[in-house]
Amino acid sequence: MIAARAVILAAGTSSRVGRQKLLMEFRGRPLIEYAIAAARAWKPVVVAGPQVAGYLFDRSDVTVLRNDAPELGMAHSLSLANRALPEAGAMIVLLGDKPLISASLIESICRAPDEIDLAYPVRDGVPGHPVALSARARRCIDRLPPGDTLRLLRDRADLRQWAMPSEDAGAFFDVDTVEALDT
To answer: 4-182: what fold?
Structure first.
């Protein structure tokens, strides 16, 4: 089993929602709380924009890394987390807007064989989250261009990948609209 630290990416600007969606309620709790609860056993590091960082200020159950340049995209957030964690370890990346994520889903991805660099759930050819990155895969992070980067890592032929078949809704459901908060 992969021994990893959890990284929760939570620095998005929520442009489609119009306000910070990670602080909006989903089934009675702020959206960000679901990823934190699921990742608790992996000592989560939350890379957060200013509003989410303010909300998480003074919490003992997470380490908060503030991303003051969320417009640089996921690549920048991932790079901040990568530099903050010990180089030798693996990282398991979660997105803060996936409230159906569970500890058991994270654990199943951590069961990837030792030689794997990138592990993620897949359903009908569509990759989901979380994504586990080996120390070898993490060395590629700082060379990624700005934007949506986990996709670019999955496209690298030199990284050994494990696409784990999964029907777990938590791997694929995310909140991109206000209407999705009512799901």
So the answer is: Spore Coat Polysaccharide Biosynthesis Protein SpsA; Chain A (3.90.550)
